[in-house]
Amino acid sequence: MADATYEQIVRWDHAHLWHPFTQMQEWVAESPVVVAAADGNYLIDTEGRRYLDGVSSLWCNVHGHRHPAIDDAIRAQLDRVAHTTLLGLASPPSAELAARLAAIAPDGLNRVFYSDAGATAVEVALKLALQYWRLRGETRPRFVALTEGYHGDTLGAMSVGFSEPFHRFYEPLLPVERVPAPYALEREHGLAPADALARALEAMESTLASARGTIAAVVLEPLMQGAAGMWPQPVSYLAEVRALTRRYDTLLICDEVATGFGRTGRMFACDHTSTSPDLLTVGKGLSGGYLPLAATLASDEIFEVFLGPYEEYTAFFHGHTFTGNALACAAALASLDLFTPAMLAALPAKGETLARALDTHVTPLAHVGEVRQHGTMIGIELYEDATRRTPYPSNARTGHRVIRAARDRGLIVRPLGNVIILMPPLSITDDESVRLVTGVAEAIAEVTDA
Ligand SMILES: *Cc1c(COP(=O)(O)O)cnc(C)c1O
Asked: Residue 385 in 3-state DSSP?
């Protein structure tokens, strides 16, 4: 069968596909890049043009595309079997991966419940938390979450997240108390970092104190709130929140779907302060960004509360058809093998290379208000007036125009509003980091000075 032409693919796409997070009226008026292949850190379109994958194919690719070790692991698994169910049956890759995840996860997280998207991993965490308290004889219907948190797009995950443009049609869902993270206070009230940290912890504490006994869990993205537009936290915030959840006797759910697997310079964001949550969600980079795979890790204490004779129905009655898919687990095992001690040790330097390039080329630009970074997670916020922090009107489509200009320079990046997100694969080289940052700087200058 001959490959379809670019024109044919675009006709099919424009006539029948509904793209995620996309205003389709705008989409069909533009010519898309059609990615047909990839090679390491580069995407290759139908015309053979190469683009640096500056957002890791939406924050998930870790070691580059078509990594020989991961490709081989998937092929080898394919020669055995692609998928079998975990309902009533076990499988080698899902069992081995569970053991490997328990070994590298923060202390005490020894149980792995698989699903296939970050959002489903969060649903599982929320349901485990609700059921955990019910099994302990308490009804705790509420969650505490951070302002502008993002946890995925299914109903439960969405209700612990909040973003005005994403969620305005769906409020209200689960009962959720929202508290600001330190950065939200810096941003909204111009507080100095130390004051913002203190105020954010006060807000968390007073919420936990006043709602004591009704909160199933605090759920948050540790260290970096990604979809908010890369809102960083001081490293100590997470450990302080952990202490508060213990003091007020509630659970802590850390959503590391974005931050997990090396993104912040350590394997997990929790590792920066050796913090162990009660539940941890991972996704995106778990399979190296190859296949849809996510997991919810639970502490022994939570797991044990679900044990009992069958007829008491305390089991966790939850599952998805593709839970623990063998190909995806095989990819994940191969990806974890690539996290050698040397590879992990080299990660902080990658973040520093990016930081230096950003300082030199991006921060000085007139319309750049702020550059926020942890490791290889970067947000560049653009303003019409950077000094006064006056935003661009949304109909100016400034972020969108910048990523189009970056595309002309062979770079694929994506905006969140007027925040330009960079999140390259961990396999990015120093030269590629500099090329990514200088190319994005040129694109910003071209669009914002016009
Ligand atoms: C992307 C993301 C999710 C959702 O993951 P999906 O696989 O897109 O469902 C959840 N939490 C965080 C922190 C994320 O960044």
From this structure: strand
